[in-house]
Amino acid sequence: MNENDKEQEKKLETGNSFLQNKIVQMGIKILSYFAILSILFLLANIFETNKIIRGIIGLTFIFTTLFFLSENVKAINYKTLIVGFLFQLILALLLLLTQDFVGIFKAANDVFLALMEYAKKGINFLFASFVTGNLENPLINFTFIILPTIVFFGALIYFFYYIGLMELIIKAYAWIMMRVLGTSGAESVVASAKLFVGQTEAPLIIKPFLALLTRSEIFTVMSAGMATMAGGVMAAYVAMISPYIPTIAGHLLTAIILSVTASVYMSKTLIPETGDPVTRGDIKIKLEKPGTNLFEAITLGARDGMFLAFNVGAMLLAFISLIALLNDLVFNITSWLFTISPIKSINLLSFSFILKPFTFQDILSFITYPIAYLLGIPKHEAFLAANFISQKIVINEFVAYSNFAKTIAENPDVLSMQSKIILSYALAGFANFSSIGIQIGGIGALEPKIRPTIAQLGLRALIIGNLANFSSAVIAGTIMS
Q1: Nearest to 254 by CA among 87, 92, 480
Q2: d(CA 99, CA 181)
Q3: What is the mean pLDDT of residues 154-181?
Q4: What's the whole-model pTM score?
Q5: Taking the CA atoms of the chain, what radius of gyration do you get in angstroms?
Q6: pLDDT band for position 13 (50/70/90)?
Q7: Does residue 331 belong to any structural domain of this protein?
Q8: In DSSP terms, which residues pair with 354 in a beta bridge?
Q9: How many CB atoms lie within 10 A of CB 317?
Q10: Number of helices (H), then strands (E), in the chain
Q11: For the chain, first and last CA: distance in Å?
């Protein structure tokens, strides 16, 4: 071998060594991801009014993100991924398009609204005027109308648990998930329970199995918790939004079903199953009845609902006040900066940004603007929609929904009906930063051995929860258009 050949071989080895460097590989991966996002953004701009193509672009964004973040692409079970997505899509088509199911959809909506009327009877009894028999104007507000609804639905859910209705539905849907998606019994049961209860209550059902879960199963349990919301708080969202979106109850029920399904196949893509689940194929569980009799069950449900309502009220008071403080602080600082800045606007592609003083919420909106736009929301509405999405991720969905309801109440035409539907689905989950702490404390307390794993996987579960919500939003928005 001559000197030239040796030199060429040395260069080739150096090049291969460079490409095999983990930092370089990660850099290439990140650049590729953002290159794909840029292309998707341009395509969304070109096909602004084509709802079908916009839906495909939105789903491409979601699945690109999913593959980019997967810790082991080679181990992905593509059958679970493909069948899971098709199952989610078929459920959406059945629930939103098929005439028979649309009738059920509307009936469920009517039942939910009728239950809200029964909740109002209890509210009126406590807070109505002795003179007029009605709620007087000072009491017609969030505290006296929305929060008591949580108490009523807490009691109602415990009632359904006691008579065995919840157990029947949970076992039926868990069986479907095991057969369709090939998931283990434990993770399927928790995901199914998340159709009704919170992210720390659902794992209670499989408490004896928690220490035996594989890393992938733990992640699925966490992701399902992030992707959906509990029945009690859903009732509050219906009360807030139903005056402006009459079918919101049906949409939120659909959002829960679609998102919990998406969370399972997405979690199995991000962290594929490489272990051997103990409950693969089946699981024997029996839900413990809350209380010794029906009356105690209702009492316990009302008590837990009351605690939840108080927590929600305190959280809203604290966070909304803090956001107002941050908004004013950032606005005052940027007002001063722009008075001394010579740059007044920025033009990027077909987007023009006028530089002016902004708030803390504007910063969050700017960060999540590409997400809102790729989900199918029109360009001129995406910045406002991004505000609600960012609030949901950074703070929680209750703050996001309450501000969403307030905004469309003040200006019903500020968002198109399709954008309202997309947002209703995109916000329908517990995927926010505080939920990471809730899961570490709540699920970790049930089985301390898995607490370190929960802490390690928290941020990724938050991402999957949001991607599941976003996929449901894109699918529903495309179908409804």
Answers
A1: 92
A2: 27
A3: 85
A4: 0.85
A5: 24
A6: low
A7: no
A8: 345
A9: 11
A10: 18, 2
A11: 68
